[in-house]
């Protein structure tokens, strides 16, 4: 399955990164940063209206190349001007053609909270996210043990990073809750066959406690999609390909927002 491949290539990449810069060295740089923030990513989700997390994603396993030649700082400015509440950056290089440099380009250009969207399999990646200026990381329940979920979340918290626990089914939602999740992302993309079905978010809505922030991920294309998802009472939506391919991000985001009303 694709998640196994992504996990394996990511572990190998982290091992190579540690040869270039050992964990102790990276950690000491990070510990010099101001680690007290007010979790701006969570704040962006805690507002009465639906929050939009616009994603920078050059390519993906399901779609292949989406838009590989992009001016990342300009796109970040476009998303900010369009009214995005947060930005997600795919940093995985092998399947998504992303990088930490993309993430840094965003955090250095706009003041919006930024999610490092990657296949977190090692604490090293959490330190690297913090050093690059991220406000949040992704913890995918399907690739992490219960102990890893708890340990990685504790580290993220220590570094003042929010964590999105990504779940695809009720068991994963329960595991996220047991690990203390404050944000749960329901991915509507089936990672075995890449089909997208909002029924996933619908069926799991009740399983997510009212005091836990919930994000619906993947497959958002139209105002009608937003109407359907906002009707579930989700706090935020993560929109990738649609925003990447929009000739006018501001007009597209407005069109989507209109679906909420
Ligand atoms: O997008 C994929 O093909 C994919 C495949 C395997 C694991 C993760 C994948 N995508 C990561 C994401 O979660 C999406 O980029 C994100 O939810 C936005 O999705 P979309 O709006 O459909 O681009």
List the helices and strands and how they pair.
Elements: H1 2-20, H2 23-31, H3 40-45, E1 51-56, E2 59-60, E3 64-65, H4 72-82, E4 86-90, H5 100-107, E5 114-117, H6 123-131, E6 136-140, H7 146-158, E7 162-167, H8 170-178, E8 183-187, H9 199-205, E9 213-217, H10 223-230, E10 236-239, H11 241-245, H12 249-258
Parallel strand pairs: 1-4, 1-10, 4-5, 5-6, 6-7, 7-8, 8-9, 9-10
Antiparallel strand pairs: 2-3
Helix pairs in contact: 2-6, 4-12, 10-12
The ligand O=C(O)c1ccccc1NCC(=O)[C@H](O)[C@H](O)COP(=O)(O)O binds at residues 2, 55, 57, 60-62, 187, 191, 194, 217-220, 238-242.
Protein name: Indole-3-glycerol phosphate synthase
Domain Indole-3-glycerol phosphate synthase: 4-256
Organism: Fructilactobacillus hinvesii
Verbal overview:
The strands form 2 sheets. The chain has an 8-stranded parallel β-barrel with strand order 1-4-5-6-7-8-9-10, surrounded by 7 helices. The protein has a single domain (2-258), classed as TIM Barrel. The protein has helices at residues 2-20, 23-31, 40-45, 72-82, 100-107, 123-131, 146-158, 170-178, 199-205, 223-230, 241-245, 249-258, and strands spanning 51-56, 59-60, 64-65, 86-90, 114-117, 136-140, 162-167, 183-187, 213-217, 236-239. It has 261 residues and is α/β, with parallel strands linked by helices. Helices cover 44% and strands 17% of the residues. The protein has 12 helices and 10 strands. Helix 2 crosses helix 6 and helix 10 crosses helix 12. The ligand O=C(O)c1ccccc1NCC(=O)[C@H](O)[C@H](O)COP(=O)(O)O binds next to strand 10 and helix 11. The ligand O=C(O)c1ccccc1NCC(=O)[C@H](O)[C@H](O)COP(=O)(O)O is lined by residues 2, 55, 57, 60-62, 187, 191, 194, 217-220, 238-242.
